[in-house]
Design goal:
Elements lengths: L12 H9 L5 H22 L12 E6 L4 E6 L6 H8 L6 H8 L21 E9 L7 E6 L5 E6 L5 E8 L9 H11 L7 E12 L6 E10 L16 H11 L9 E7 L5 E7 L13 E5 L2 E4 L14 E5 L16 H24 L1 H6 L1 H14 L1 H7 L4 E4 L4 E3 H8 L10 E6 L6 H9 L4 E3 L3 H15 L2 E5 L5 H4 L12 H14 L5 E6 L8 E4 L2 H12 L11 E6 L3 H9 L3 H18 L5 H14 L1
Parallel strand pairs: 1-7, 11-13, 16-17, 16-18, 19-21
Antiparallel strand pairs: 1-2, 2-6, 3-4, 3-6, 4-5, 7-8, 9-10, 10-13, 11-12, 14-15, 14-17, 20-21
Helix pairs in contact: 7-10, 9-10, 9-13, 13-16, 15-18, 17-18, 18-19
């Protein structure tokens, strides 16, 4: 058996870093600014411990562009490095000064670095990298380190008056886009917007007022252009923030959003993992269009990604806001998540917090919760369909609305209608309308029978949601108001008798078969109440739901017409007497067609030439 050490060819390291380590060249700025933040925070930590003496001064990071020299400089006045530290941290790939610092000072938590590779991202855009640095330690000499993206480097002493580090990138020809002010400012805005140390990028004009009253004047001055907010709202305690603070931060996150959020949840946990953040509930209305890439993921205030599907359940991607956790496992380039048990626990925690917050809002002010339901409803239903634990909590405050605009939690509504809407199988039938205007006739019939009708008008979510409730609750069934005749919507043991004999029934059936042609419909003679409509159009619940489900799955059903049933009320006077007693065949057919078209009109299904013919016939009869 042989043992040995695997050899690593250093000349191959830089091409690997440049081509494969980071998914996007623009990441270099995030990495180098993060290192500068660490340098500042390390100095603060040493000062708090009394190891670094004297005034820290105005700690900040500067980004400088010299288009003539083709350089980008990332400057900090933080901890700096000695010559020995330069050799240790810059000449050894994957040796992290941040990790070493955290091992020494275990109670420090605001250090960003981890793998010791971020500095080398500079070579993705630079032909050579120059580092000028001076340590905080008294008597330290300043040094310059230069490398051209290969294992060779130069190191020499230089004159430098101030503490800190300048990382100077001599930009390669194929990366000169990064010498543009707008390009760099865009990257700083994207990746560094909430880093905890002020970041200056040039200067900007600011107008100040001087004097008072009529002598008041305005003057424009140049001030530092600080592009970040070092103390964002999610890092503060909820007790220290007002509602207006939360709204202001929402506008800071989404400056082009016109609508204010409905409400928000402040995430603040230290155990068993560290997690901070604010999740906002936007106004969704009646749409299930997912607002993806609206939740931003940070690690120690460094932007990681706005694709958070691994840590946030899919239904929560409808929310907006920020999540920040140093305990979220990231890949080496810190560009995306790596799955582990922590991710699942954090995801479960966020789901629980959202569910509990909604429950709290419902219990605290039910009227206010109901007023927001048009925006909350689609979110809650989607969550119940997506997550079992969310369903268990949300069933207590998921609302349904009746035609009178009253809201009820589902279980409360079931108890309300159970006495009048329980069928012969002991199931409570929940009747609903999805288009109240076109289903007016059926709705009025339900009212005449003393039934209540719900509004379920979110087609993309309500079908699956009703099926889920039928399965979960077991004792309820949803039927659309036009899925059957009024006497069959809720099946009872007692049924009216048909006044037609078999010969008369056959005669009526044959007549309407000649009228209802060329459509996906079948004619059926039924015994309804004499007060019910003479002809009723119904859309069987099972077939209609199946078609809706297939449409949701992306199946193209344009060529498949709606399946419906034409129910002729054999007990209505116009059918039992007028039609049967009419001896003129043409007039009998004309009346049957008129009644059929009237039923189509009540369903909103009469259009074009048929509608014109119906109108003409109606006027003639008048």
């Amino acid at each position: 058996m042989q043992k040995g050490n695997i050899a690593v060819q250093t000349e191959n390291i830089f091409p690997i870093i440049k081509r494969f380590l980071y998914s996007d060249h623009e990441i270099f700025l995030r990495e180098l600014v993060s290192n500068a933040v660490d340098a500042s925070n390390k100095l603060k930590a040493l000062s708090r411990r009394g190891e670094a003496k004297g005034e820290l001064g105005d700690l900040k990071i500067e980004i400088l562009i010299d288009k003539d020299a083709k350089t980008i400089t990332i400057r900090d006045n933080g901890i700096g490095m000695t010559e020995e530290e330069v050799k240790k941290y810059l000449n050894q790939v994957a040796f992290s000064s941040a990790q070493e610092f955290l091992e020494k000072y275990k109670d420090e938590t605001n250090i960003i670095g981890n793998f010791g590779l971020g500095f080398y991202s500079a070579f993705m855009v630079a032909a050579s990298v120059e580092v000028q640095t001076k340590s905080w330690q008294e008597g330290s000499a300043a040094v310059r380190w230069i490398c051209e993206g290969n294992p060779e480097y130069t190191l020499e002493n230089i004159e430098k008056d101030t503490r800190g580090t300048d990382v100077i990138l001599h930009v390669a020809e194929d990366s000169e886009e990064f010498l543009g002010n707008e390009r760099i400012e865009g990257l700083l805005e994207k990746y560094c917007k909430f880093l905890p140390v002020p970041i200056q990028f040039g200067s900007k004009d600011e107008t100040i007022e001087e004097g008072e009253g009529e002598e008041k004047t305005e003057r424009t001055i140049q001030v530092d252009n600080i592009i970040n907010n070092p103390d964002p709202a999610w890092r503060k305690q909820p007790a220290d923030l007002t509602d207006e603070d939360y709204r202001d931060f929402y506008r800071e996150l989404y400056p082009y959003s016109y609508d204010a959020p409905l409400f928000w949840i402040h995430l603040n946990i230290d155990y068993p993992f560290t997690l901070n953040g604010i999740l906002y509930f936007p106004k969704l209305g009646n749409s299930l269009e997912l607002q993806r890439n609206k939740i931003q993921l940070y690690s120690n205030q460094v932007f990681v990604t706005d694709s958070v599907k691994e840590i946030v359940p899919e239904f929560l991607t409808l929310l907006h806001g920020v999540i920040d956790s140093p305990d979220i496992p990231l890949n080496v380039s810190r560009s995306y998540l790596q799955a582990d048990s922590n991710v699942k626990r954090i995801s479960g925690f966020i789901t629980k917090k959202v569910a509990d917050k909604l429950g709290e809002l419902f219990s605290k002010d039910r009227a206010d919760f109901e007023s927001k339901w048009s925006d909350l409803g689609i979110f809650v239903k989607y969550g119940m369909l997506s997550d079992e634990k969310f369903y268990e909590k949300a069933i207590k405050y998921a609302l349904v609305k009746n035609l009178e605009g009253q809201f009820f939690p589902i279980e409360e509504y079931v108890e309300k209608v159970k006495p009048t809407q329980t069928d012969k199988h002991n199931k409570t039938v929940l009747i609903y309308a999805n288009q109240p205007d076109t289903q007016h006739t059926q709705i009025e019939a339900c009212k005449d029978y003393g039934y209540e009708v719900l509004i379920m008008d979110q087609p993309m979510i309500d079908g699956p949601f009703m099926q889920q409730l039928e399965y979960k609750l077991g004792s309820v069934v949803f039927v659309r108001v036009d899925s059957d005749t009024i006497n069959n919507l809720i099946q009872k043991d007692e049924k009216p008798e048909l006044v037609l004999n078999e010969e008369e029934k056959t005669k009526v059936q044959e007549l309407f078969n000649t009228v209802v042609t060329g459509v996906a419909a079948r004619v059926e003679i039924q015994a309804l109440s004499p007060q019910d409509a003479p002809v009723v159009i119904t859309r069987p619940e099972f077939m209609r739901r199946m078609k809706e489900m297939q449409a949701m799955q992306g199946m193209n059903l344009d060529g498949l017409p709606d399946s419906f049933q034409v129910v002729v009320n054999g007990n209505h006077e116009l059918v039992a007497k007028k039609i049967l007693q009419e001896t003129d065949e043409q007039r009998r057919t004309s009346l049957a067609k008129y009644l059929y078209q009237l039923a189509l009109l009540n369903q909103g299904m009469l259009k074009g030439a048929d509608l014109a013919e119906f109108t003409k016939r109606s006027l003639a009869q008048l």
